[in-house]
Amino acid sequence: MRAVILEKLYDWSVAPYQYFKKNEAWQYNAEELKGYPKNSLGYHMGEFLIANSFQLQEKLESHDVFHVLIGTGITVPEEISMQFYLLGNGKRSLYLFTVICIGTILYPECWRYFKSKYTFGKSASAFHQLDFQKLLHQPIHRIKSTFLIP
């Protein structure tokens, strides 16, 4: 039931969030991303999207990049933990704070897990604000090592 609540809130929030995002939408699909070199961020993005039967959501592409770079799964607690990681990394947004507040209330048994992700985010160099579209050709291991992402 708690996952359904958060998924419904997500569904309601997507369109307004996309509307207020200032970045341009990427012009790729998952198959095109898989056309990047095998060690690149673009390729790994394509793999992630295909493995989860996703396509990029307009103006929300960085969300999937975070999944790939941080190595976070797609369950509800993992989605919440990713927001904790990003908070530790310096990201601030109404969406992030909303997910963290509601997620902490609905998943109190995951508090230690969430806190550990926050700590990992703090230990990484800030990367949440990058223009990831310009980094799609870069080797993923180089991005992770540059920004201290374990």
Automatic annotation (TrEMBL):
The lineage of its organism: unclassified sequences, metagenomes, ecological metagenomes. This is Coenzyme Q (Ubiquinone) biosynthesis protein Coq4.
